[in-house]
Amino acid sequence: MPQARYKRVLLKLSGEALMGRQGLGIDPKTVEELALEVKEISALGVQIGIVIGGGNIFRGLSASARGMDRVSADYMGMLATVINAMALQDYLERNNVYTRVLTAIKMEEVAEPFIRRRAMRHLEKGRVVIFAAGTGNPYFTTDTAAALRGVEIEADVIIKGTKVDGVYDSDPMLNKNAKKYDHLTYLDVVKQQLKVMDSTAVTLCMDNKLPIIVYNITRKGYLKRVIQGESIGTRIAGA
């Protein structure tokens, strides 16, 4: 069996990844399948951190655009990520994967507060660590939280799961002639305003030489293949 190429990874999931074909909320079957994929790569000895969004429950930016106070809306979005983290934790532990949820906002009754040294220790012990509540600050996306946590835990790579098989020059759902990129530089993403991660997240990864791989999360087994070093999706790194 091929060995894992990466020792420690930061997996970035959107909240929408948990809702399956539902229009909203959490689909138990989808979360179960995702948990089994994470279990598979954990069994390879890979240390796994996960940052998950909350868009399947509440999206702060959208609510702000409709008139809600931006700071309040962003905090509500952070709480939605905690709900998703607890759901994923439940399904991971049902499948005998030791898991810890660490939140950027203190709520000790349901999760541990984020402390970098504690997170590193959990990873070293083979526990999957789910980072919830974003950065704990409004105006920052969960993409930026993923970049920040990836740098903090000294991850080898950020792996971002999406509904398409990489980065395109336009939306492949709307344009059948959209061109897929196999490799990009950080500056390519920023200059072309490609919708991979927000510019703050990409810049943070660039400054710390942390590569990003974008792959299709809906394809069963793809996560393991990415971990084993196969050229799947789009890789974003330096020149």
Keywords:
single chain; 239 residues; alpha/beta; Carbamate kinase; two-stranded antiparallel ribbon; 11 strands; 36% helix
Find the CATH topology.
Carbamate kinase
Taken in chain order, the helices and strands follow as EHEHHEEHEHEEEEHHEHE
Strand content: 15-25%
DSSP strand count: 11
Going by CATH, the homologous superfamily would be Acetylglutamate kinase-like
Poorly predicted ranges: none
Task: Give the CATH class.
Answer: Alpha Beta
Report on this model:
This protein has helices at 28-42, 60-65, 70-94, 116-124, 142-152, 186-191, 199-207, 222-227, and strands spanning 8-13, 47-52, 99-103, 112-113, 128-132, 157-162, 167-168, 180-181, 183-185, 212-216, 234-237. By secondary structure, the chain is of the alpha/beta class. The chain has one domain (8-237): 3-Layer(aba) Sandwich (Carbamate kinase), CATH 3.40.1160. The chain has a 9-stranded mixed β-sheet, sandwiched between helices. A two-stranded antiparallel sheet has the order 7-8. Helix 5 (142-152) runs parallel beside helix 7. The radius of gyration is 17 Å and the shape is globular.
In short:
This protein is an alpha/beta fold and about 240 residues long. It has a single domain (about 10-235), classed as Carbamate kinase (3-Layer(aba) Sandwich).
